[in-house]
């Protein structure tokens, strides 16, 4: 993978009211920006991050502050790999949690004779929760980390296992049900 280009966002807003600083900080956090120093943040340059930081720059200025947005290449160039590692590390714990949940769901679905209907519903709920967490992480993972790819494959395997479990013929139906005729 080629070294990513980087954006540096530096800003200063009036200290009062503090809600202005908190607003900017939350937006940067939502983008998963790395703090370089007070008021200076780093993000990989993607069309999305560039657009988001341009909007944030305008917003900081509307709040009475100052903001600068720079495209940067680290010196020496091998620092870029270190920044990418730091950036990706933010997501490892979340992706590991998603992968573990997915693997646990898949194991429950592979019980002999197929899962009980209550287990199937619980597995579907756990799969949906893990999928939501994955999507939230993925929206911030601008470099597409390896841990994210592992989590995606684990979720895809669960999706297939859920579909197979639902389509698998179940045992005899309850008396009075369609299978008892």
Counting DSSP E segments of at least 2 residues, the number of strands comes to 4
Residue runs with pLDDT of under 50 for 5 or more positions: 172-181
State which percent range the strand residues make up.
5-15%
**Radius of gyration over C-alpha positions, nearest whole angstrom:** 23 Å
Q: Helix-strand pattern, N to C?
A: EHEEHEHHH
The helical percent reads 55-70%
- The whole-number mean of residue pLDDT values reads 87
Largest sheet, strands/sense/barrel: 4 strands, antiparallel
Seen as an oligomer or otherwise, the chain set is: single chain
Category from helices, strands and their pairing: alpha+beta
Lateral strand order in the biggest sheet = 2-3-1-4
Shape: elongated
The number of domains is 2
Terminal CA distance reads 61 Å
Helix segment count? 5
What are the salient characteristics of this protein?
181 residues, alpha+beta, Alpha-Beta Plaits, 2 domains, four-stranded antiparallel sheet, disordered C terminus
Give structural notes.
Helices cover 57% and strands 13% of the residues. The protein is of the alpha+beta class. The protein folds into two domains: 6-73, Alpha-Beta Plaits, CATH 3.30.70.240; 82-167, no CATH class. A four-stranded antiparallel beta sheet has the order 2-3-1-4. Helix 3 packs antiparallel against helix 4 (117-138) and helix 4 packs antiparallel against helix 5 (146-167).
């Amino acid at each position: 993978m080629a070294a990513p280009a980087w954006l540096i966002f530096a800003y200063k807003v009036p200290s009062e009211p503090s809600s202005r600083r908190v607003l900017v900080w939350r937006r940067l956090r939502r983008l998963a920006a790395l703090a370089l120093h007070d008021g200076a943040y780093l993000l990989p340059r993607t069309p999305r991050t560039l657009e988001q930081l341009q909007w944030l720059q305008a917003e900081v200025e509307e709040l009475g502050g100052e903001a600068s947005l720079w495209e940067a290449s680290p010196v020496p160039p091998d620092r870029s790999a270190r920044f990418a590692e730091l950036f990706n590390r933010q997501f490892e714990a979340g992706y590991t949690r998603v992968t573990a949940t997915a693997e646990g769901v898949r194991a429950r679905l592979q019980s002999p004779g197929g899962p009980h209907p209550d287990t199937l519903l619980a597995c579907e709920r756990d799969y949906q929760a893990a999928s939501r967490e994955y999507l939230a992480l993925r929206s911030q993972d601008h470099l597409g980390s390896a841990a994210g790819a592992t989590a995606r494959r684990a979720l895809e395997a669960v999706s297939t296992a859920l579909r197979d479990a639902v389509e698998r013929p179940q045992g005899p139906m309850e008396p009075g049900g369609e299978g008892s005729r």
